């Protein structure tokens, strides 16, 4: 059984994932133009409630399997925090970038 | 029970890395985090391959737990300080597990790996080996573990606390949003359960909220302290986090963790399921 642990964060979707069904929020955490690995990225729903958290890959990538709606993506890192909002109008891949510092 | 007995700060842990009788243990599902860098001197326990039975859906048994802890070099008299990723979900799960098998001196590192990293404290990739011990576990203390039949009995009788996110509770999502959503079981929650997401018990940096904030949180949510409580989530690790808050931090006397949680309940034939928010 798969647990709730964070799967590896990659820029491409695993082969078993159907992007036609899943609402995927994918993006990078950046400091200026430099990707930030090891940042803690939190997905908050439209009421600000915590939904999920992942740690970015060495290339700064993160990914959430969400649902259509408005989301806030907030990143924490020892160099600083940052956040941005994203509206997912339906299933598919939604790109998002968060800047910290 | 008080906070000082069950939680240690990152500062305390850093000052006690070399203290004899204190063993730091990182518990993760994804052990690559440990392999790439862990708190110096900490040993690792793999949530899935070391704490779960490899065939049946259950924990390793008492003999298996004894063998595991002996091999990790953990003695019965050691103070075990647990920490991990995911805001200590799996560390809290392991904490509950240590209590289940009767280990007295066990504590959680407040904030886990996240707080440690955000503080910029040292990590090491060096291999850690400890001398093997002869660990003796007790029989499982089922006063803190709930099984499916008593969960069904608890509908409308005990406090049922669903600690998943609001969207999982309502049935909109079947798993936390960092995981794929295609699952076998039905979506929704156990009737009469209240939804208090585990995350409300934690600060952004992963540390637990104060006792006062926690008391207010669960009171507002409608937990009746005169009744017993069963906490559940999807697979039982987030609910360990809430079990810790209710039983270990607030001292509620009768709190059980239902480790079967939604992946079991949502697959049962014939049990009632409720959908939608309250």
Q: What can you see in these coordinates?
A:
The complex is a heterodimer of chains A (101) and B (278). With 101 residues, chain A is mostly beta strands. Chain A has a single domain, classed as Carboxypeptidase-like, regulatory domain (Immunoglobulin-like, Sandwich). In chain A, 0% of the residues lie in helices and 53% in strands. Chain A contains no helices and 8 strands. Chain A has strands spanning 23-31, 34-35, 40-44, 50-55, 61-66, 69-77, 80-88, 92-99. In chain A, strands 1, 2, 5 and 8 form a 4-stranded mixed sheet that branches. Chain A has a 4-stranded antiparallel sheet with strand order 4-3-6-7, with no helix packed on it. The mean pLDDT of chain A is 86. In chain B, 33% of the residues lie in helices and 13% in strands. Chain B contains 12 helices and 9 strands. Chain B has a 5-stranded parallel sheet. A 4-stranded parallel sheet of chain B has the order 7-6-8-9, covered by helices on one side. In chain B, helix 6 (85-100) crosses helix 11. The radius of gyration of chain B is 18 Å and the shape is globular. The two termini of chain B are 33 Å apart. The mean pLDDT of chain B is 94. The A-B interface holds A 1-8, 16-18, 21-22, 38, 40, 42-43, 45, 47, 49-55, 63-67, 76-78 and B 28-30, 33, 47-48, 57, 85-87, 89-90, 114, 117-120, 165-167, 172-173, 175-182, 197, 199-200, 204-205, 233-235, 237-238, 263.
Structurally, the number of domains of chain A stands at 1
How much helicity do the residues of chain B have? 25-40%
- Which pair of protein chains has the largest interface, and what are the residue counts? A-B, 34 and 41 residues
* Amino-to-carboxy terminus distance of chain A: 38 Å
Average of pLDDT of chain B: 94
Helix-and-strand structural type of chain B: alpha/beta
Poorly predicted segments of chain B: none
Strand content of chain A: over 45%
Number of helices of chain B: 12
